[in-house]
Each structure stands twice: as C-alpha cells, then as structure tokens.
Amino acid sequence: MPILTIDTLTLESGAVLREVPVAYQAWGRLNAAADNAVVVCHALTGNADAADWWGPLIGPGRTLDTDRFFVICLNVLGSPYGTASPLTVNPETGRPYGPAFPRVTIRDTVALHRRALDALGVRQVAVAIGGSMGGMQVLEWAFHGDFVRALVPIAVGGRHSAWCIGWSEAQRQAIYADPRWQGGHYAPDDPPAAGLAAARMAAMISYRSRTSFEDRFGRDRMAPSSNGQAAEDAPFSVESYLRYQGMKLVQRFDANCYVHLTQQMDTHDVARGRGAYPDVLGAIEQPALVIGIDSDVLYPLEEQQELAEHLPAGELAVLHSPHGHDAFLIEFDQLHHLLHPWIEAQVDSNPSTSPSRSTTETLCP
User: Fold this and answer.
1) Which pLDDT belongs to residue 352?
2) Is 67 helix (H, G, I), strand (E, B) or coil?
3) d(CA 90, CA 128)
4) Active site (catalytic) residues
5) pTM here?
6) Helix 106-119 vs helix 255-266: angle between axes, to the nearest 10 degrees?
7) Which domains does the chain have, with CATH numbers?
8) What residues are paired with 27 via a beta bridge?
9) Three-class SS of residue 79?
10) Angle at 292 between CA 289 and CA 294, to 5 degrees
11) pLDDT at residue number 350
C-alpha cells in the first residue's frame, strides 16, 4: 500500500507529529482539472483498501465509477494499517510511540488527509463519502471551504452521543482490565488479547440488531464437542460467533490503536468551538445526502433526520435492513440505488468531472 510522508502535523492539542506516514489506496485517474476525486472515509477497524470492504461499489461502471472518478481512501490517524499510530516509530526516540502516541481528533485526521491530497495534486474533491467513523470525517470535510463539493455521511450523527461514548468506554475498560495491558506498555508478542477480544465482542453487539441476532442465532447451540460434552453444555451459537469475531480482530489489530481510535471518535462534534449546533450545521453549504439505517441502534435514524433537517442542502435517504449499524457494509444493492442517481446529479452540475479529461497517469492501481 502506498505511503506518503508529511513533514509535520500540528494537532489540535498543540502536540506536533513529525515525519507523519499516511497510507492510502486509490483507483482510477485524476483528471486534467484535478477535481474528480472521491474520498472514501473508512470506519473504526477499517483500512484504506476500500475495495476490500466496499468492493461492489468501487470500479468501472459501478457506483463510484473509476472510469470517471479518482477514488481514494486514506488511513486514519491512530490506525494500525500504515498511518501514524501507536505502532509508528517516534523519530525523536527511535522507538514505537505505544501509549505515548498523542490523542488526536477527527479534525486532526481530516487535516492530515487534506495535506496528503494536496501532495497528490488533488485540487477539489467531487464527493466525500463514508459510514460511521468515516461519516464523522465526511462532516469535517465540510469545513474545508469549497475543496469538497458534496457530502455523503452514512450512519452517523453530527456529534458523538453519550450512548456511543458509553459503548466506547465499556470497550476500553475491557482492554484495561486485561492483566497484559500494563498501561499500554505490553510486549508486541504478548498483547492484551483477551481484553481486545472482549471489546470487539461488545462492539459487534452494538453493530447489529436484536432482530438480526434472533433470526440468525435464536437459542441454537453449537454441536457438542467430541470429548463427551453434554448437549446442554455446548455454547450457544451467538456465543461462538462473538468469540470468533473477537479473536479474529485480535489477529489483525492492536489494543493501543483501538483505545486511541475510540477516543478519537469521542471527540466528534461539528459544533465544538464553532458555535451553537443548529447554527453550525446551518452554515454548511455543500449538498449532502444523509443516509440512515432504520435498524441502527448505535446511531439511530433520528440522528440522521436531525442532520438532514439542519443542513441547508441536506437530503435524507433511509437504508432498510435488519442488520443494524453494519448494514452500510452489507446492503450494497440498496446503497447503489440510493447513491447512484444522487452522485450523477452532482456530477452533472460540474461538467469537468469527465473521463475524457483524464490525465494519462494512474496515481495508484
């Protein structure tokens, strides 16, 4: 995966990161006007390879048409997938930051991504789109003037609720309670795996819905083990599923990164330091397609309704699904039907977004 290095980044806290790596992946070509970029913003445990987790939406002739757009996804600050994080070597000490990695905000991540896009020669973004933590980034892009022409925040509100902060804190406490946590100073080969797995298990419950769990698992149990286990002692199917999801994350993620990323999400509030919440939303000028999910218990539909009502050029679309918050990673056909006509309308309002004006250089495969 390509890595850009930004010389310095001053965070909202005043801390300064130096030699800041930014991992990204891109598809398609930047046109001659350098204004056909689509920025795809990833969620908490996602990465910049959007074709892996949003593949049905990205490609030639698809929703995010790579024959027309330069589609790019940049890895967020604090993530273990290439951008500066607790795993990154601090150039001043020669050792990984670990728990000393400074706290960052959603605004810090977007500021870094703006620097990266400038370095890649992007002059204007046609659409910024993303769900969950990605939707938080989308809303912050609104405050970069006319650099971004249109917004698609999905399954998110304009500020992180007490409900969401509570879920995040419960997950962090699961990590802290693991004896291997050691204040974040754990050995790479001996991480707090049990704590991180438990955090992921709790998160997975919030990402789905009661209906989806009942329909999929009910009170079914796994088959008894071959060592003479009684049928009534076999784990419930939902227990097995959650344990599997927990250990799967442990194999690909880092506990310090998880803590820092959830803390970053807790900073999300578009009105922080800018004024009254309705007034701040009312000052956002870009067209915005706000997509909510009718079964989302983490960011319920009323949050997207509130966004759409206060955004002057906001429009609400509802994704109908039993899958809860994760529906934006599952319901690709519905997403296409919601997104395609809206994106086409935005493109029609800016004729320069055309493959006929593409440069001959593909910036990234």
Assistant:
1) 59
2) coil
3) 31
4) 132, 296, 325
5) 0.94
6) 100
7) 3-160+268-357 (3.40.50.1820), 165-263 (1.10.1740.110)
8) 71
9) coil
10) 150
11) 73
Task: Quote the pLDDT of residue 359.
Answer: 39
Three-class SS state of 185: coil
CA 92 to chain centre: 29
Write out the two tokens for 323: 């899958």
Q: What values do phi and psi take at 341, rounded to 5?
A: -65, -35
Of 45, 50, 60, the residue nearest 26 (C-alpha): 50
DSSP β-ladder status, 64-65 and 58-59: parallel
The distance of Cα 222 from the centroid of its chain, to the nearest Å, equals 33
Tell me 150's DSSP state.
-
HSE-up of residue 75 (Cα within 13 Å, Cβ side): 25
Quote the tokens at residue 288: 């915005």
How far apart are alpha carbons 136 and 129 in whole angstroms?
10
- Give me the count of residues in the chain: 365
Nearest Cα residue to 48 out of 12, 74, 9, 79: 74
Residue 288: strand pairing partners? 151, 314
**From the first residue on, what is the mean pLDDT of each consecutive set of 10 residues in the chain (365 residues)?**
97 98 99 98 99 98 98 99 98 97 99 99 98 99 98 99 99 99 97 99 98 96 75 88 98 99 99 98 98 99 98 98 98 98 88 46 38
Residue 78 to residue 76: CA distance in whole angstroms? 6
